[in-house]
Specification:
The protein is an alpha+beta fold. It is built from four helices and five strands, in the order αββαβαββα. The radius of gyration is 14 Å and the shape is globular.
Length: 99
C-alpha cells in the first residue's frame, strides 16, 4: 500500500502532481513532502530548518534541498557528516517572506 491510498482523492491527486525535476527525473509534490518532513522544524514548519538527517539508500540531499525551497521559499544548505548523514539548515518560510 502506498502513502496516497489512505488519502482523500483530492489530496492524493495533489501528491501525484509533478512539480519539479532532478537530473531529468520528474519529482512529485508527495516526494517533496516526504523529504521536507525529514528536516522541517518540529515546532512549526515555517521556522528555520536546523536538523541532522540520515538519508536512506536512494534518497538524495538534492531532493531535500528542493523540498525546503518548495515549501519555505528559502535556500537550504548542508554539511556532510558521513556517507548518509547531513546537517541541514535553511532560513525558513518566515524569513523568506519577510515576516
Amino acid at each position: 500500500m502506498n502513502n496516497t491510498q489512505s488519502m482523500p482523492a483530492g489530496i492524493a491527486d495533489t501528491y501525484a502532481q509533478v512539480v519539479d525535476q532532478i537530473d531529468g527525473r520528474p519529482v512529485t509534490r508527495g516526494e517533496l513532502d516526504i523529504a521536507f518532513r525529514k528536516v522541517e522544524n518540529l515546532n512549526n514548519w515555517k521556522l528555520p530548518v536546523d536538523r541532522i538527517v540520515r538519508l536512506e539508500e536512494g534518497e538524495s540531499i538534492e531532493l531535500v534541498l528542493r523540498a525546503i525551497e518548495f515549501f519555505t521559499g528559502s535556500k537550504g544548505e548542508y554539511m556532510v557528516l558521513n556517507d548518509s548523514t547531513y546537517y541541514v539548515t535553511a532560513p525558513g518560510y518566515y524569513a523568506a517572506v519577510g515576516a
